[in-house]
Write a structure and sequence with these properties.
It contains nine helices and seven strands; from the N terminus they run E-H-E-H-E-H-E-H-H-E-H-H-E-H-E-H. The protein is of the alpha/beta class. The protein has a four-stranded parallel sheet with strand order 2-1-3-4, covered by helices on one side. A three-stranded parallel sheet has the order 5-6-7. The longest helix is centred in the N-terminal third of the chain and has 15 residues. The chain starts with 9 loop residues before the first strand and ends with a helix.
């Protein structure tokens, strides 16, 4: 490729979607190039903005089709997208990206549930460690009003049973799996 050729699509994604997106690329359901940012960035708005803006600046000249696979994880997300002429998936968070807002609402109609993606459950300790380090956040109290944890399992990411057990102990809540397909997520990413 000479320096004047532009890539058709360049994705910048939260690392929480790494396994799912790599699977979709391997299966030829998505095409283009992709870079993943650390999933733990969402616990620190300043660092998230710095890394996201850095990636947008670095890659905006390489394509006319810059796509961002993030929820609304930063209060200035819309302004950031507009500044770099980038398009973002239409999801408020990673759970909405996987299920859709309506399905998430339907599943939330029972016992008060804290939902997690498989990527999130496999990395919860690092994310909590970063939040504790940056803000001395007390994650233990965050689960006091919940009755259960549900992990959305696409079957793509092997769930770390030991991490699930530790998370259950940490939150003092049962952890359940909910099998889901990647269909909604794929359509969402293809639509940007």
């Amino acid at each position: 490729m000479n320096s004047t050729e532009k890539k058709s699509v360049f994705f910048i994604s939260c690392g929480i979607f790494k396994d799912e997106l790599e699977y979709l690329f391997r299966e030829k359901k998505l095409d283009g190039e992709i870079v993943f940012l650390d999933a733990a960035l969402h616990v620190n708005f300043d660092r998230l903005k710095e890394k996201l803006v850095g990636a947008l600046q670095e890659h905006r000249g390489s394509t006319d089709n810059l796509k961002v696979v993030y929820g609304s994880c930063h209060p200035e997300m819309q302004e950031i997208m507009e500044s770099y002429n980038a398009k973002k998936i239409q999801a408020g968070n990673c759970l909405e990206a996987m299920l859709g807002a309506e399905e998430l609402k339907r599943l939330s109609s029972g016992p008060k549930t804290f939902f997690l993606s498989a990527g999130w459950i496999n990395h919860w300790e690092e994310m909590f460690r970063q939040g504790k380090k940056d803000f001395d956040y007390d994650f233990e109290t965050m689960f006091a009003s919940y009755q259960r944890i549900v992990v959305l399992d696409t079957g793509i990411i092997p769930l770390d049973e030991e991490k699930m057990r530790k998370f259950s102990e940490f939150t003092r809540l049962p952890v359940e799996r909910k099998a889901i397909s990647l269909d909604y997520f794929l359509n969402l990413v293809q639509s940007i």
